[in-house]
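re: the backbone from monday

yeah here it is again, tokenized this time
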């Protein structure tokens, strides 16, 4: 039976993908695939480059390489993404969880005491934010909302595998079809990339991940934030917080939206790459907001 050397297949990956990914990322992709298909570790790849694969194994990698050339993300090929020490199922129905979003979850966990909390994740996708918060705060009551039934199927599957109790609901914050309780924290990583920036994005993101989870209209790129804040002002407990992931160019504008909606203690936070990426604000409650508005008018 003919065999195929791992080193030869890896070289084929490097040549075929050199115009799409930097060398380090190609190596990481190759490791993800060989770990997924064969259980190979990075150590094995380094120590046994002459390890042989049978034709079936080589064919699996060949098929994966063809998909990568067509800009399919490796996470959609394996059906898995790693987020906050959790292996999550992903599909083309959901956005692939990003390291920056891990930062958002960790910010929330670090900023509040581990007391019983009520939390809503708007636009949950794979469920990564809700799952990360529930894992960090097992006693919290965590709800997660999405418009897409296919995304919710993925999120529910992740919650089942991880044995994390989250209430998932299909609904639209712009026109809720069901009653919602009040929350102490509302968080969202909504679509925020202006459609006009699509051409500057990596093809494996722009061409493969769900458009509805990525892009907003050029003429009104902050529309989803206004919808979230309108919902939040009706469903946050007095003193509750909203946390948002944002497009790097819109930090000041999103902070202004929170201020106009009556939020206080507004913070703009950079991600690990030094880009404006997260905003939070505290809602004093409708009565306090009206008092503040009245005082501003008098002055």
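seq for it, each position gets an aa:
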């Amino acid at each position: 039976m003919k065999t195929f050397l791992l080193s030869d297949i890896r070289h084929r990956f490097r040549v075929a993908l050199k115009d799409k990914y930097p060398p380090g990322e190609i190596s990481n992709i190759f490791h993800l695939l060989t770990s997924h298909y064969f259980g190979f570790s990075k150590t094995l790849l380094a120590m046994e480059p002459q390890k042989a694969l049978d034709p079936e194994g080589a064919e699996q990698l060949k098929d994966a390489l063809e998909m990568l050339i067509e800009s399919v993300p490796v996470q959609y090929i394996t059906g898995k993404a790693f987020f906050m020490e959790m292996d999550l199922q992903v599909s083309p129905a959901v956005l692939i969880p990003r390291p920056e979003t891990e930062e958002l979850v960790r910010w929330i966990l670090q900023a509040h005491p581990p007391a019983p909390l009520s939390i809503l994740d708007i636009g949950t996708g794979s469920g990564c934010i809700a799952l990360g918060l529930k894992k960090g705060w097992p006693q919290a009551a965590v709800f997660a909302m999405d418009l897409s039934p296919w995304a919710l199927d993925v999120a529910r599957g992740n919650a089942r595998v991880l044995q994390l109790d989250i209430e998932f609901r299909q609904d639209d914050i712009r026109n809720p079809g069901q009653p919602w309780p009040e929350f102490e924290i509302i968080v969202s990583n909504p679509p925020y990339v202006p459609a006009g920036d699509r051409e500057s994005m990596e093809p494996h993101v722009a061409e493969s991940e769900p458009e509805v989870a990525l892009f907003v209209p050029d003429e009104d790129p902050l529309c989803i934030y206004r919808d979230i804040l309108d919902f939040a002002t009706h469903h946050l407990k007095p003193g509750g917080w909203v946390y948002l992931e944002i497009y790097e160019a819109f930090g000041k504008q999103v902070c202004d939206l929170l201020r106009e909606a009556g939020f206080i203690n507004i913070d703009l936070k950079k991600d690990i790459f030094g880009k404006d990426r997260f905003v939070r604000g505290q809602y004093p409650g409708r009565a306090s907001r009206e008092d503040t508005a009245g005082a501003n008018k008098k002055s």
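The first strand starts at residue 4 and ends at 5. Residues 91-294 form a domain with the Rossmann fold fold (CATH 3.40.50.150).
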